[in-house]
Design a protein that fits this description.
heterodimer; A: mainly beta; B: about 120 residues; six-stranded mixed β-sheet; four-stranded antiparallel β-sheet; globular
């Protein structure tokens, strides 16, 4: 079965640079979620989109922005990168965002290292 | 606010032993959803189970079983006849009924190590 696709899988950036992470949800899933997982920590919710509109916002820094496109893929844009942004970034998708409690299926993650 | 507590940071067992991972949650909502995810050393998050607050039935799936008790706000996970490949971090997560989304609130995770 098709899964969530994330690219790139690994990314190395310098401080103050920008990064763009991409997420392709499972086919027919209309909702995308972004999470950040620091080393040894649990995933923290950043932001979500349902039918191309932002549906929820968590602890996402102002330096980060995201959007969902007409084909339902999503991109997380990160600017002025800091050392503390080094983390594993997960994208997840669910069949629909209007029904609460839908199961979220996670992608393999993008491991970002900021030097 | 929602909170999930996994008091066991690390558990180590010998292969074939049974092990129970605890999960306690807090929410004021009467409608909520609980999940367990597995994160093996390779890093991906693998969905294991989803339960809602209106269905307190326990569930068994192969070597996995879950005990859901609303009275104690617990959703514990038992792995029977553990295997080395079961070594991973296991996360319990909570989602509540909201109009704006279904974000997951994760517990801190339990690192399970199964030794041969």
């Amino acid at each position: 079965a098709a899964g969530v696709i994330q690219s790139p899988r690994h990314l190395i950036k310098e401080k103050r640079e920008t990064a763009t992470l991409k997420c392709y949800p499972i086919p027919r899933h209309d909702t995308v979620y972004w999470y950040q997982q620091g080393p040894g920590q649990d995933p923290q919710f950043l932001i979500s989109f349902y039918e191309k509109m932002q549906s929820d916002k968590g602890s996402i820094p102002d330096r980060f922005s995201a959007q969902q496109f007409s084909d339902y893929h999503s991109e997380l844009n990160m600017s002025s990168l800091e050392l503390g942004d080094s983390a594993l970034y997960f994208c997840a998708s669910s069949l629909t965002g209007w029904a609460p409690g839908e199961t979220q299926y996670f992608g393999p993650g993008t491991r970002l290292l900021v030097l | 606010a929602q909170k999930v507590t996994q008091a066991q940071t690390e558990i180590s067992v010998v292969e074939k032993e049974d092990v129970t991972l605890d999960c306690v949650y807090e929410t004021r909502d009467t409608t909520y959803y609980l999940f367990w995810y597995k994160q093996p050393p390779s890093g991906e998050l693998v969905f294991l189970i989803r339960r809602n607050s209106f269905d307190e039935q326990n569930e068994i799936s192969g070597r996995y079983s879950w005990n859901f008790q609303i009275s104690t706000s617990s959703f514990n996970f038992t792995l029977t006849a553990s295997q080395v490949v079961d070594s991973a971090v296991y996360f319990c997560a909570l989602s509540v009924l909201e109009t704006s989304g279904s974000r997951l609130t994760f517990g801190e995770g339990t690192q399970l190590t199964v030794n041969p």
